[in-house]
Amino acid sequence: MNKLGPVITVILAIVAFWYVAAVPMNVQETLTAAERAGVAVTPDNARARSEAGRWSLVFQNLDALGGSWSVDRARLPSPHQVLTEIYNSTWDEEVNGRRGIVNSGSFSNRSLVYHSGVTLGATVLGFLIGAGFGILLAVGIVYSRTMDRSVMPWAIVSQTIPIVALAPMIIVVLYSIGIGGMMPKAVISAYLSFFPVVVGMVKGLRSPDHMQLDLLRTYNASKSQGFWKLRLPASMPYLFTSLKIGIAASLVGAIVGELPVQRGGLGARMLSGSYYGQTEQIWAALFVAAILAALMVAIIGWIEARTLKRMGMAV
Amino acid sequence: MTLVILALVIWVAAWALNAWLSNGPLSNSRIAGIAVPLIFGATVLIVWELVVRGMNVAAVILPPPSVIAGTFAQNLPTLWADAVQTIGKGAVSGYIIGCGSAFIVAIIVDRYDFLRRGLLPVGNFMAALPIVGIAPILVMWFGFDWQSKSAVVVVMVFFPMLVNTVAGLRDTSAMQRDLMHTYAAGYFQTLIKLRLPAAMPFVFNGLKIATTLALIGAIVAEFFGSPVLGMGFRISTSVGQLALDMVWAEIVVAALAGSAFYGLIALIERGVTFWHPSQRK
After folding, report:
1. Which site from A26, A53, A239, B163 is most exposed, i.e. has the minimal number of CB atoms within 10 Å?
2. CATH classification of B72-279 is 1.20.1250.20, yes or no?
3. Measured between CB atoms, does A301 come within 8 Å of chain B?
């Protein structure tokens, strides 16, 4: 409880701030709606209101602000509106909707469950490819001096480059040579998760110190024994740390990869929300993306805790 | 076909040269340390050029490096204007505001234990989220110009910087704090003379992570709406026109700017944390 108290306080403070901020953010829309409903609003034409400051409008119309937290297409939807949107586009759409899983047998293409599934598939596939190649390259770098010297500086430099800029091009090029569906997004995810894993894994495989390496030499251990019994186990904490960074990067890659091609996914949902001014839809997609990221990092954290505990390395 | 075979031969030869440089008599010299990655990079470019030309790959799929270099040289004014819009206005202003405010918040958070225990888990959580997703919302709030890009960058760099600075401010040993205590130093004296200097390696770690994030944020935010210039705008419209040489030219600019930005921070770090073991020669 000692740990949870401050966290809950901070979260409650954020939510409270959000509700307060929604009032001046949405004041124009709120007053327009109130005027239509027949409430007296202080500058009584929309033109004067759009020129007035947000805060002066708030203080001139303290009675007419009741609708601040339920405006349609608000500039800042309030938390409960976002939660309602998430509920409507997941549970409600699937259970009660005409195209939902209950009535049609497959996930509705209007529900966030479907879109999360699209994004999640590309993320996980890309992550597995990226992490797999990353680990292989790291082993190569640790055992081949040539590879270390040629590739490692570039791997480090590539971390300072905004690789995401490549995303639209990769998508279009892969589509034009006939690779469609999940693969182009997975390539971007793989690319983003690749370098953190390489760098972390190289650090991990090099973490055994001289004493330990000398001990193995006195045991007359072969190179492969040295790898399986010392270097690989020693690299595990580093590997898991970089896997967590990698999977978060993978998700960003998949979302950005969905922007140029509108074929479903959370990124497509955000972009269409921004085109049509459906702010609740953007926020809902953002929240679901956050939940996905947290879940995936938590799963890797759980595997990490289990693995390290069995290896006797848990802290 | 001959070009492809030539590419293969050059690849094998360059690899053999690198293997000799890094395992042979020169292996510990400074020259080998610089030459090997350069040779590798040049080989990749040459092989790319030869394979693209040899197999007649269409320019709309992968332009050869020479064409990209030509486009880069011909469009310098456009590329410069894009870079000023995206990096000069969007990324740098957001970077300064975001890192600066995170630094100040970190000092406040560190002062009050309650805040630290409450904000740090939230900050750690936020640092792992796909914050780029907030771009469409901020573009809607702050308009299409650089202000919205700057806002995206602020949000993106804030949490990594906060988490790193808070971790750094705690990186003093009990001995050091006791020493300050025996000197009768107050909170502010301890902060300025001991804890802030001790936090600098962490602060610079955060600043370095934030350089890449700032560029990513500014470029991706332009995919959601921008004036008719900017690197993200140019990339997304050039992809639409299948002018991939222009896209690659923008990526070259992004790579150069990213490395230069990172290098600048690393240089400042070397000056500020000269006392740290990782900086000593």
Report:
1. A53
2. no
3. no
Residue A282 sits at the chain B interface (C-beta within 8 Å): yes
Is residue A90, in this structure, part of any structural domain at all? no
- Check if the interface score ipTM surpasses 0.90: no
Cβ–Cβ of A260/B239 closer than 8 Å?
Answer: yes
Contact partners, residue A200, CB within 8 Å, separation at least 6? A238, A239, A241, A242, A243, A245
User: How far is residue B150's CA from residue B91's CA, in Å, rounded to a whole number?
Assistant: 6
- Co-location of A237 and A285 in the same domain: yes
Cα separation of A272 and A261, whole Å? 11
pLDDT along chain A (315 residues), means of 10: 76 86 79 75 71 73 71 79 83 74 70 85 92 92 83 78 78 79 85 86 87 90 87 88 88 83 79 81 87 89 90 72
Q: Are residues A124 and A228 in the same domain?
A: yes
A159 touches chain B (CB under 8 A): yes
What lies within 8 Å, CB to CB, of A88 at 6+ separation is: none
| Chain A / chain B CB contacts < 8 angstroms | 157
Cβ(A189)–Cβ(A127) under 8 Å?
yes
Backbone φ and ψ of A108, nearest 5°: -70, 140
* DSSP 8-state secondary structure symbol assigned to residue B27: T
Q: Would you call B129 and A270 a contact, using CB atoms and an 8 Å cutoff?
A: no
A-interface mutation test, from B39, B117, B152, B244, most A Cβ less than 10 A away:
B117
Q: Are residues A204 and A146 part of one domain?
A: yes
Residues 6+ apart with CB under 8 A from B250: A165, B79, B82, B231, B234, B235, B238
Q: Which residue of chain B comes nearest to A158, CA vs CA?
A: B255
Whether residue A34 lies within 8 A of chain B, CB to CB, comes out as no
Distance CA B271, CA A300 (A): 38
- Counted domains in chain A: 2
Assigned domain for A81 exists = no
The dihedral over CA atoms of B129, B133, B135, B138, expressed in degrees to the nearest 10, equals -80
Query: Which structural domain range is residue A236 located in?
Result: 112-310
Residue A198 lies in a domain: yes
- In this prediction the pTM is 0.82
> For residue range B103-139, what is the model confidence (pLDDT) as tens digits?
999 998 888 888 888 888 888 777 777 777 888 888 8
Query: Testing the interface with B: which of A146, A159, A192 to mutate, by most B Cβ within 10 A?
Result: A146
Q: Cβ separation of A160 and B122 shorter than 8 Å?
A: no
CB of A169 within 8 Å of any CB in chain B? yes
